[in-house]
Design brief:
Lipoprotein; 2 domains; three-stranded antiparallel beta sheet; outer membrane lipoprotein receptor (LolB), chain A; twelve-stranded mixed beta sheet; alpha+beta; signal
Length: 371
């Protein structure tokens, strides 16, 4: 038994000695291709970081988008917005050119009747399509003040970077010859210093609402001279708003106290009525005006009928007195006639806009931007 045990120990020892002679293979470093890719990614990331920082600090931005007009030809829409959210111009909302003016947190929108029909406002589409409408940013796919102002846009794009640029950096040239990094076909950043965001897909801002603004925006900061022109143009845009429709409120009217007064031997008849209104849906704290249109059909036996109309403004939930008159041609004989009046009234809720007060606030805001 002892001799067998000794032989086994020798065999194991021999195995251990043999194992000590095996060579260990070392770990190789990164290949030249891997190092080059890492450097390219680092350069791209540096450009993106610098571009977003510049974007965040920009006093104002200009957005350009391409939309086909009614004839199928490409048209450029431009929207300008300051870092505080004040902005105006045109954006391609749901394939239509929509004008937007957004001063001091108030949003005014002008679009054609088809746009309002597509938003379920069939009854008001004709009147809304003929002027400006006061609404709120939550009614739009993307509120420009909340998502397109420089610091807001920079924050949105930073949040969207996680899924972009994971592969090898890709470069391309824009139509004007500017070379950019193209991250996932959704974000373009210039390769040359000073780095800036040159374009992006609206879908980056909101996967659901963003695509309704089209496939791509071109973007650039405004210089001092352009900011001053932006201010001048903005004042003109505020003047153009006038007294817009209130897109959220509705008014009902009731005609009361119908009085008809006809003058003997003259043929003129005057109708006087009280019109009361009731408004629902207006924003808290707002004081809308109610624009009332009164139409009166006045008829008399053998004299026929005539219609008169008048318009007036009332405060919300108030009553105003309105009147209008017609004149019949009387025959050359003495006679009496039974005259009837049928008044009808409709109302539009209008937002009260003090253009001078709005422009005074814009002057303060633009002075801080150098414009």
């Amino acid at each position: 038994m002892r001799a067998r045990w000794t032989a086994t120990a020798l065999v194991l020892l021999g195995g251990l000695l043999a194992g000590c002679q095996v060579a260990v293979t070392g770990t190789a470093g990164l290949s030249d291709a891997d190092r080059q890719l890492a450097e390219q990614r680092a350069q791209q990331q540096t450009a993106v970081d610098a571009a977003l920082q510049t974007l965040e600090q920009a006093p104002a931005l200009q957005y350009d988008a391409t939309l086909k007009d009614g004839a199928g030809n490409p048209a450029t829409l431009t929207y300008r917005v300051a870092r505080d959210g004040n902005g105006f111009g045109a954006l391609p909302l749901e394939g239509k050119s929509v004008r937007i003016t957004e001063p001091d947190g108030q949003l005014y929108l002008a679009a054609d009747a088809d746009y309002w029909k597509s938003h379920g406002l069939e009854e008001n589409s004709t009147q809304f399509g003929g002027g400006w409408v006061h609404t709120v940013g939550s009614e739009l796919p993307v509120d420009p003040a909340a998502r397109l102002a420089p610091p807001k846009l920079a924050g949105e794009l930073r949040k969207a970077l996680g899924g972009l640029g994971s592969g090898a950096p890709r470069k391309q040239k824009l139509q004007d010859g500017t070379e950019v990094y193209d991250l996932g076909g959704a974000l373009q950043v210039t390769t040359a210093e000073p780095h800036r965001v040159a374009g992006f897909a609206p879908a980056l801002l909101d996967p659901r609402g963003g695509p309704k603004l089209g496939a791509a925006f071109r973007v650039r900061p405004l210089n001092v001279a352009e900011i001053k022109q932006f201010h001048t143009d903005f004042n003109a845009a505020v003047d153009a708003i006038g007294q817009p429709f209130d897109g959220l409120a509705q008014a009902s009217v009731t005609v009361l106290n119908d009085k008809l007064d006809c003058q003997d031997y003259v043929g003129s008849c005057k109708t006087t009525v009280d019109v009361s209104n009731s408004v629902v849906g207006n924003q808290p704290g707002s004081k809308p005006n109610v624009h009332i249109k009164l139409s009166v059909e006045i008829s008399a036996d053998s004299l026929g009928s005539q219609t008169c109309a008048t318009e007036g403004d009332a405060a919300a939930d108030a009553t105003i007195t309105m009147s209008c008159s017609v004149k019949f041609t009387l025959p050359n004989r003495t006679a009496s006639y039974q005259v009837l009046a049928k008044p009808t009234a409709v109302a539009e809720v209008r937002s009260a806009v003090d253009a001078n007060a709005v422009k005074a606030k814009l002057a303060t805001a633009f002075a801080a931007l150098g414009g």
